[in-house]
Amino acid sequence: MAISPTVSAMHRRYPYKYPQKIDYNTNVRNDENISMIHTPLSSYLTYLPPEMRGLPWQAHPLDGKLLLFERDSGLNVLLEGDETAHLQRVAPRTLLIAVTNICNLTCHFCYRNLKSPSAWTFDSLLEFCRAASDWGVLEVAFGGGEPTLFKNFERFIHELHDSSGLCVNFTTNGMLLTDEFLRGIAGKYGNIRVSLYDTNHWETTIPRLVANNARFGVNWLITPDELPRIEAKFLKLMGLGVRDFLLLSYKGSDATLHFTRAQHDEFAAFVNRMYAALNGIAQIKLDACWGDTLPGVPRLFETSDCGAGDDFLSITSDKRIKPCSFHHWTIPFETLGDVRAYWEKQRTNRQAAATGGCARLPFRALTDHGGLSHEVIHLATV
Ligand code: SF4
Q1: Which helix (H) or strand (E) holds 32?
Q2: Once rounded to an integer, what is the mean pLDDT over residues 18-46?
Q3: Whose CA is nearest to atom 3 of ligand 1?
């Protein structure tokens, strides 16, 4: 089977098929990861549409596939075929890093100790992220606490962008996204994720992001009480200019925040309806923890696992590694080398998070009526 590239971007998806064979004698560009796999990047570029070949791609080998990523456009190309069958992953794609615990809001549901100091300083975080880039990580996603409260955050974004190959993203409550800050970081970041809370005035923040031509999307936690108003709120957000929706599932021990089977079906019907009506003008993303609970929902890639601990790692503000933010495993580390050693040893371990809503647990550890299967959760901790 010859390579079949799949290209994805902010609002588009291009399936291309190029039947020609790779010319293994071409030798134009090489980087550390590509030299490890003994095939020059230029050979793989022949599978791209001509107008895309000149972009500054970063190669990210996966197991049996090759991912090409271009941080300025946000384009991803996944190449898969006989020609990529020998490849092996060398690094996670993304590190999710909690840079601070402090926050300028006091949301009732927040579980963080806002007074706990972060172990990260400007210099230690910069050094860690640069080392991650050298390892082969493509993206960092900063969170917290509120990452815009990290000291000199604007300068930090600049320095990291200019001194590494990383695509810099962050999740924020948006309260400090001034025009000046947005103009200051223009061209230096990948995506701003704005969380939608009742208390963070997103109706004001979103028009400011749109006016500044910012690359952003919204993170929206979908709980049962959101369902009756979900379509109206979705259309309101569209009207404000949102074109990128990440719909998050709840993970945790509060049974009232989990869906029943019927509510999963209702939510899936909503997603399918919006997807058809939007006809590609906006992007609807679902977090991996929904698993296979949403019948008929179209997917860009068919994957059977969320990728926690392999495709991405969560790094806490007190310098611990977690497979994902909801995980009960935490492993202390000092250097990027420690993180790398952990990843190489544990990346194929698909350990579930011991919490209701984890897609690695049978039926996400939920009953048909939205209750929690405590035995399942208990077993996951063993
Ligand atoms: S391990 Fe479970 S909770 Fe964590 S990202 Fe994967 S599915 Fe979600």
Answers
A1: helix 32-36
A2: 49
A3: 358
